[in-house]
């Protein structure tokens, strides 16, 4: 299996970096081929601007989606973006690894998504009609590939529980799971989340590392998050609202987009 890890932590000697070493060791032990995009080490450019589109004149107005589509089709996107796109096409499984900062991924990783997910590559693909609304949410270029998050956070697991003050971890990660991974077609696995990492001693890290090794060993067997596919009949097109008869009493918000016993 080909595995791409996109690593977004500024300190390679951090606990997050140590978990990367654990993941790499186990992946290699299992015989997988691995590439790592260490964004900070690469000095990854995080902002989208005119420089991303060589065919755009300095005086031209930048319309990101339109220009992204045009230059992707013309194979004229910048070399760093094209290299990351090639890695995504090569990979069978993609792992995004990062610390949870201010309830989100670090800006450098969001910038990787902004630039690499070009129109025509990760979005803006497929038929748009009365029966389909593009190849997205379970379909698209990444269909058939698996994806998972490895996340570290300083907060307690209880802080990220259903009644925790930070909100449920699944809700906080929903924009990444559903919007960044499932949208272009990835099959999304439950995340590996390490809590209270600033207070981790050797004994706690040993347990954490064993848990991560088990997740790595079972990448192909772990049941994915059961998101509803867009074009499978669960949503009205073009409003993209869930059909009323698939809703359950008391289920709302992000949970609506999970398969339930009725749907």
Walk me through this protein's architecture.
Strand 1 (2-7), helix 1 (15-29) and strand 2 (33-38) form a beta-alpha-beta unit. The chain has seven helices and eight strands; from the N terminus they run βαβααβαβαββααββ. The longest helix has 16 residues, at 202-217. Helix 1 (15-29) packs parallel to helix 6. With 263 residues, the chain is α/β, with parallel strands linked by helices. The strands form two sheets. Strands 1, 2, 3, 4, 5 and 6 form a six-stranded parallel sheet that branches. Strands 7-8 form a two-stranded antiparallel sheet. The two termini are 32 Å apart. The mean pLDDT is 93. It folds into two domains: 2-224, Rossmann fold, CATH 3.40.50.360; 228-263, no CATH class.
Please identify, by name, the CATH architecture of the largest domain.
3-Layer(aba) Sandwich
Domains (count): 2
Instruction: Give the number of helices.
Output: 7
What is the CATH first-level class name of the largest domain? Alpha Beta
Poorly predicted runs: none
Distance between the termini: 32 Å
Apparent shape: globular
Structural class designation: alpha/beta
Overall pLDDT, averaged?
Answer: 93
- β content, as a range? 5-15%
Alpha-carbon Rg, integer: 19 Å
Question: What assembly state would you assign to the polypeptide chains in this entry?
Answer: single chain
Give the % helix. Answer: 25-40%
In total, how many beta strands? 8
User: Going by CATH, what is the homologous superfamily of the largest domain?
Assistant: Flavodoxin domain
| H/E topology pattern | EHEHHEHEHEEHHEE
> Strand count, sense and closure of the main sheet?
6 strands, parallel
CATH topology of the largest domain: Rossmann fold
């Amino acid at each position: 299996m080909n595995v791409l890890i996109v690593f977004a932590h500024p300190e390679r000697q951090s606990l997050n970096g140590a978990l990367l070493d654990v993941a790499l060791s186990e992946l290699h032990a299992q015989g997988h081929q691995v590439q790592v995009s260490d964004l900070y080490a690469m000095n990854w450019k995080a902002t989208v601007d005119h420089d991303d589109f060589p065919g755009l004149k300095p005086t031209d107005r930048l319309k990101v989606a339109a220009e992204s589509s045009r230059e992707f089709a013309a194979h004229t996107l910048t070399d760093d973006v094209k290299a990351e796109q090639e890695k995504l096409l090569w990979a069978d499984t993609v792992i995004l690894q990062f610390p949870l900062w201010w309830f989100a991924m670090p800006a450098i990783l969001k910038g990787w998504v902004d630039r690499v997910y070009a129109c025509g590559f990760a979005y803006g693909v497929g038929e748009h009609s009365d029966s389909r609304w593009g190849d997205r949410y379970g379909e698209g270029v990444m269909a058939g590939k698996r994806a998972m998050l490895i996340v570290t956070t300083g907060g307690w697991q209880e802080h990220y529980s259903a009644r925790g003050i930070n909100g449920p971890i699944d809700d906080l990660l929903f924009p990444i799971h559903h919007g960044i991974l499932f949208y272009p077609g990835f099959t999304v696995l439950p995340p590996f989340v390490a809590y209270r990492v600033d207070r981790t001693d050797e004994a706690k890290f040993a347990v954490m590392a064993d848990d991560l090794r088990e997740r790595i060993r079972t990448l192909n067997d772990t049941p994915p998050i059961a998101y509803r596919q867009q074009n499978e009949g669960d949503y009205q097109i073009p409003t993209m609202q869930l059909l009323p008869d698939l809703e359950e009493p008391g289920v709302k918000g992000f949970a609506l987009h999970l398969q339930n016993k009725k749907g």
